[in-house]
Amino acid sequence: MDADNPIVELCGKGMMAEGRGDPAAAKRLFEQAWERRSDDFEASTAAHYVARHQPTPAATLEWNERSLLHAEAAAAAGDERVRGFFPSPHLNLGKSHEDLGDFARAREHYARAEQCLDLLGDDGYGGLVRRGVAAGLERVAHAA
User: Fold this and answer.
1) Average pLDDT score over residue span 40-46
2) Domain segments of the chain: what residues?
3) Per-residue b/e over 111-121, b at no fewer than 16 CB within 10 Å?
């Protein structure tokens, strides 16, 4: 991710607000990031965080789908900034489908996330996503 990007910066501030226990401030910052996006990379990033503050699982799914669509568009345009991001939208889509009881779609997205884990760095973020994918696959392995 591009830490010097203003959208990434807004999302980082939103995550800090979440860490301080201020979800309302986080939501405002993520929505500002969405409103200020200027390309598909920024849209994918902002949508990823806006999804975290939706009132329903269906709305969360919509924002997670939006994040993946913009990530795919950025990748198709050759934007390398999105490369290491791909496992995360698939992980979140897996969780969204799981929350809605669509375990087949959840397994599909968790598997797609697993297939691109090699794009992640060997850092805290990479470990977090890897653990999330493994947990998701385990949760839905035998679900109906």
Assistant:
1) 96
2) 1-63, 86-144
3) ebbbebbeebe
